[in-house]
Specification:
The complex is a heterotrimer of chains A (299), B (335) and C (533). With 299 residues, chain A is mainly α. Chain A contains 13 helices and no strands. Chain B has 14 helices and no strands. Classes of the chains: A mainly alpha (299), B mainly alpha (335), C alpha+beta (533).
């Protein structure tokens, strides 16, 4: 080991990335997922440019117009309009903003909260650990959607509260993962070495141990991202998520439900948008897991 | 084994207490006054309001209310619904069979299709079958089932007219409920066509509810099989000239089933969450829809005890899964 | 042997099918589960449709299809000179239903009437709390505890009810579902068996249909009451298939799984009209949807500002987009089907230019306000959120910046009644008994502006309230009509509300359904329906 020239940390990182990309690339689905995801991000960022109409403007001469290829459709509303004459395509495009935003916020809250809780539990053990883990057990004992529903009912329906509720429901997964990883790492020599060298608790937790349990956390984060998009849409569908006129896809579905027999497009497109985004993220997640999970790597 | 069981049970006590606090706490701080909700657009005078609140016990300090709640729980009293005025437990038990029937059918579909597909995909790794089935599984896993349910209704009930739109059995059939499970009751009634009618009502909701678990089980089975097939003893058995079919059937499958059984057991939470959406879409008279309705009606006792009963149920099933796991895999029992 | 059993099977199957063909079964896809089967403790229309109307009768009844009061279990009645003593002559030979645990030994009589009143009005009555925590909301909210002084049995078929003060709407009040007459004999039998709560689970009444079974949240079954004192029903079996979702209900109707449904989604009306296997009955509903300003907060305390805002909103656009045309614009707080509706009142016409000028004249510029959109659907307001969005756009054209707020329903009801509330509230009302007092007093009187009332404009106009009070103690309907007409003029002049619409009620049914009569009160009753061959 001492024979080879010591690599700079930057070089190590670059090498790790290259290795990661090598494995990730082998999963064609993951690459496709990544591609769709990037498209989605671009759509969200450039929504104001891409969308042909304002997503909340109501064209009073155009209630429930079908898509352009159907009889009665109009060229200025490519995917038709909804019950109050808003352009479906524009609403779908702006909906991408909501879904990505929800995913990011939920994962961020759940990840940060869960990691801190898990670190604390795994690091200190003892009664702290016992209490924290029992609380996590309690949260996990409830079906996630049901708990989120009750939480939203407590906090009041709305997008922010829906995101908070979903994050709370997700965070035990992160806490458990982190705790398990921390407990595994604590026994390793490098931790003991760092401790002997006089590293403080905080430094030990965040600088030494945390980076070494990132892999499973990243995989869990992608999983949570897609679940967050699904669950927030479900809450929206049940009337507890984003509130109209927000062009959130789940909320759009809820509003469209009464037209299920009459206007297939208002039902079909928002659901399809949800499916495609969630699928893309999940495909990406599969690739990430293959690339980050050493056990699967060898097979 | 007994010690294993006891230690598991002991673990459950604080968790269960936590659940009661959550169920009570959340519900008690829900905004919106149930007394006002009962009055609706009409409003209620302050005197009448105080009177009703007192009658419902809302005027006591919250901590006292919690202990009252706990005390009544110990006596098996889950409170009365504010809307129907009937005991929550009675209502739960009246609706529970419908959810169980739906859930069991869903898990049956998911297992009976998911496990063989997963095994086959693992054996034929890389084949078109593997690719197609795993892609479908991923699609299923990503499916917003509330939308999926609507699409199926449009297609099978609306366009094709193959399945009824909602309900549990055609109204033409009437027989007393004995088990609460429509499939069994309809068979026992001896009425011609009743069973077929029950099946045709159950099929779409079960498929919708089975979608996500099916995907999870198929994926889990495949990866468990792949893992086991890579193990030394399987390779040895192959090397010793054991027929492939036997190796897979006897060694690989049995060992791969351990994580799969756990996965199936863990789907109960997923099923409960799915039941909320599925039952809402298909107007299925079960627990999930009952909870949604009660949340929006501010029916405190129902939400409280419903949360409690559901969480308790999930806990018990998880315990059973743990125990089964211990039975299949003696190593866990020892530790 | 084998052949024989086959043959037997075939014969019995045949018998079964012919039996099914002969019995006329009518399926109604109802929209919600009944809360219970005792009408008195509950308030939901769906509960009354499932209990009060099919199973029970009342002393007085609303004449089918109207809000006029006609004799029910009481054949006739006398009112004392001062309007406080009502003497009812009861109908003889009326039979209660029976079920597998109870068979009545006597006909309906005065004991049942006294029992039905006292169990609700007397807190010490042994049946007052037969289910723990039970309350009699309608009895209380119709002010019966203060109104009814005594209910006495004079003889088996005469009952005397004494009121504390004259009250013109009393006869309409006791025709309401909560005053359904239950069997005292059945109650005693249940008490003896220790199964009091079965009064609510297995109802026994005198109505056109006998209750058979209820499968929670799914199906209710009734059978025709062959001994019915009135005209016996034409159908043999009545089934309620509980189907909360409007689009699902329609699908079931189209598939022939039910014969009639309530509350179609406005969006589906076109497709219903186009379907030759269906037909559609319609009538103006007894309701009003409104936007109530907070008349105690500046600048909304100025009637001119309120009028200007009323003029800025395009009601027709709301009716087109939200009600899909299934409503008529409202100008008065009571619907046009109600007696005393003042058609001479002029509505504030839609005129954004004039509205803007009027606001400026009052010195109101850069006005910013909240519009409260209720989170639930009601017949009077199918989609408050959409309505609020349309108003928001209209108001922005006159320079008013409106934000839409919403709360969960219970909270909405609570917060909207808090004094000093910020913003105007979308809400509405559906009549209980067809009396104008039931709209005007409940929603707009000074009394109702206090805590616990329902006057969400907090509008207290002495002159208006006095007119209502006068009308309440007058028994002559022509005179009352004049008073109410005057009150409506004051209302329009002061504009505490933006009156939005009176929604039209639609009832889609299979083309072969005959004899269904729509009720202005929104009830669904089936004793007159039949299925054409």
């Amino acid at each position: 080991m001492s024979d080879t020239a010591p690599l700079s940390t930057g070089a190590i990182r670059r090498q790790m990335l290259a290795e990661f990309w090598f494995y990730f690339r082998q999963n064609r689905g993951a690459v496709a997922g990544l591609f769709v995801f990037i498209l989605l991000v671009l759509t969200a960022i450039f929504a104001p440019v891409l969308a042909p109409h304002d997503p909340t403007v109501q064209y009073r001469d155009a209630f429930l117009l079908p898509p352009v290829w159907q009889e009665g459709g109009r060229a200025d509303f490519l995917l038709g309009t909804d019950a109050v004459g808003r352009d479906m395509l524009s609403r779908l495009i702006f909906g991408a903003q909501y879904s990505l935003f929800i995913g990011i916020v939920v994962v961020a809250i759940a990840l940060v909260g869960g990691v801190i809780i898990g670190l604390v539990a795994g690091f200190f053990r003892g009664w702290v650990d016992a209490v924290i883990m029992r609380v996590m057990d309690v949260i996990l004992a409830f079906p996630s959607l049901l708990l989120a529903l009750v939480l939203v009912a407590v906090l009041g329906p709305g997008l922010t509260n829906a995101m908070i509720a979903i994050a709370i429901v997700y965070q035990p997964h992160f806490a458990r993962l982190t705790r398990a990883a921390v407990m595994g790492e604590m026994r390793r020599e490098y931790v003991t070495a760092a401790r002997v060298a006089g590293a403080g608790n905080l430094r030990l937790m965040f600088r030494t141990i945390l980076p070494n349990c990132l892999g499973p956390l990243i995989v869990q984060a992608t999983l949570s991202f897609s679940s967050a998009v699904l669950d927030s849409a479900a809450l929206g569908f049940l009337g507890m998520g984003a509130q109209p006129p927000a062009p959130e896809w789940g909320t759009m579905l809820a509003e469209a439900r009464e037209f299920i027999l009459r206007a297939w497009w208002v039902v079909t497109f928002p659901g399809l948008a949800i499916l495609v985004s969630v699928l893309a993220i999940n495909m990406m997640g599969d690739g990430l897991r293959d690339a980050l999970d050493p056990k699967l790597k060898r097979s | 084994m007994v010690r294993f069981l006891l230690s598991k049970l002991l673990y459950l006590v604080p968790t269960f207490l936590g659940i009661t606090i959550v169920a009570f706490g959340f519900v008690r701080i829900l905004p919106g006054d149930p007394v006002l909700l009962m009055a609706g657009e009409r409003g209620v005078s302050p005197e009448r309001h105080a009177e009703l609140s007192a009658q419902l016990g809302f005027d006591k300090p919250v901590v006292m209310q919690y202990f009252d709640f706990l005390g009544r729980l110990l006596h098996g009293d889950f409170g009365n619904s504010l809307v129907t005025k009937k005991p929550v437990l009675t209502e739960f038990l009246a609706l529970f069979p419908a959810t169980v029937e739906l859930g069991l059918c869903a898990i049956l579909i998911a297992t009976l299709i998911g496990v063989p597909v997963g095994v086959l995909a693992a054996i034929k790794r890389g084949s078109w079958f593997d690719q197609v089935s795993m892609t479908s599984a991923l699609v299923g896993f990503s499916m917003p089932i509330f939308w999926w349910g609507l699409l199926l209704i449009i297609l099978f009930s609306g366009v094709l007219g193959w399945t009824p739109v909602s309900g549990r059995i055609s109204l033409m059939y009437y027989f007393p409920e004995s088990t609460g499970f429509m499939l069994i009751d309809s068979l026992m009634s001896g009425q011609e066509g009743a069973f077929r009618s029950a099946v045709s009502h159950l099929i779409l909701p079960s498929i919708v509810l089975a979608t996500v678990p099916l995907a999870v089980i198929a994926r889990q089975t495949r990866s468990a099989m792949l893992e086991v097939m890579g193990e030394d003893y399987v390779r040895t058995a192959r090397a010793k000239g054991m027929p492939r079919r036997r190796v897979i059937g006897v060694h690989a499958l049995r060992n791969a089933m351990i994580p799969v059984v756990t996965t199936i057991g863990l789907q109960i939470g997923v099923l409960m969450a799915g039941a909320i959406l599925t039952e809402t879409i298909f107007s299925w008279p079960g627990i999930g829809k009952w909870m949604i309705d009660s949340i929006s009606r501010r029916d405190y006792p129902v939400v409280q005890s419903g949360l409690l009963l559901i969480a308790g149920l999930v806990m018990v099933v998880n315990l059973l899964v743990d125990l089964t796991y211990g039975l299949i895999n003696p190593r866990i029992r020892a530790s | 042997m084998k052949y024989l059993s086959h043959a037997l099977l075939a014969v019995s199957a045949l018998a079964l099918t012919t039996a099914v063909a002969e019995a006329k079964t009518f399926v109604y896809c109802s929209e919600a589960s009944p809360e219970g089967f005792d009408p008195s403790p509950y308030t939901a229309g769906t509960t009354f449709d499932a209990s009060a109307h099919p199973v029970y009768n009342r002393l007085t009844e609303f004449k089918k299809g109207t809000t006029e009061v006609e004799p029910g279990l009481a054949e006739s009645w006398d009112v004392s000179e001062d309007g406080t003593v009502y003497t009812f002559k009861l109908r003889q030979g009326v039979k209660f239903h029976s079920n597998d645990r109870f068979t009545p030994t006597r006909d309906f009589n005065a004991d049942d009437v006294v029992f039905s009143f006292q169990r609700q009005g007397d807190a010490s009555h042994p049946w007052h709390q037969y289910i723990p925590g039970i309350t009699y909301e309608y009895y209380t909210s119709m002010d019966m505890p203060n109104l009814v002084k005594s209910v006495e049995k004079v003889d088996d078929y005469t009952v005397k009810i004494t009121l504390t003060h004259p009250e013109a709407p009393f006869l309409a009040n006791i025709a309401m579902p909560f005053m359904s007459i239950v069997s005292k004999e059945y109650a005693d039998a249940l008490d003896a068996a220790g199964a009091k709560e079965d009064l609510n689970n297995a109802p026994i009444g005198t109505g056109p249909f006998r209750f058979v079974a209820y499968q929670k949240d799914a199906v209710i079954r009734y059978q025709k009451n062959a001994d019915y004192w009135g005209t016996a029903p034409l159908i043999d079996d009545l089934i309620f298939a509980i189907t909360p979702d409007a689009s699902v209900r329609l699908q079931k109707l189209k598939a022939g799984e039910c014969h009639l449904m309530p509350y179609p989604s406005p969006a589906d009306l076109e497709s219903i009209k186009a379907d030759s296997t269906l037909k559609l009955d319609q009538q103006p509903g007894l309701n009003v949807g409104y936007l109530a300003y907070n008349t105690t907060v500046a600048p909304f305390d100025n009637p001119k500002v309120r009028k200007a805002l009323n003029m800025a909103v395009n009601k027709q656009a709301i009716i087109d987009a939200v009600f899909q045309g299934a409503a008529e614009p409202a100008k008065n707080p009571i619907p046009p089907t109600m007696w005393s509706y003042n058609d001479a009142v002029q509505d504030d016409a839609y005129d954004p230019e004039a509205a803007k000028a009027m606001l400026e004249a009052e010195g109101v510029t850069n006005l910013s306000m909240n519009i409260w959109a209720m989170p639930v659907q009601r017949p009077y307001m199918p989609n408050a959120r959409r309505t609020a969005e349309l108003m928001q756009e209209d108001l922005s054209k006159v320079g008013v910046n409106a934000q839409i707020v919403s709360y969960e329903w219970g909270e909405y009801l609570q917060k909207s009644m808090e004094p000093g509330r910020d913003g105007a509230v979308i809400l509405g009302w559906t009549g209980d008994n067809g009396d104008p007092d039931n709209f005007l007093s409940v929603l707009l009187s000074c009394d109702a502006a206090k805590e616990g009332g329902a006057n969400r404009a907090f509008w207290c106009n002495e002159e208006f309230s006095d007119l209502l009070q006068q009308a309440k103690v007058t028994s002559d309907q022509a005179e009352r009509t004049k008073l109410y007409e005057q009150a409506q003029v004051i209302f329009k002049d002061q504009a505490p509300w933006l009156t939005i619409a009176h929604s039209t009620q639609y009832v889609p049914m299979r083309a072969d359904v005959t004899g269904f009569v729509m009720s202005p009160l929104g009830d669904f009753t089936f004793e007159t329906v039949d299925l054409a061959e």
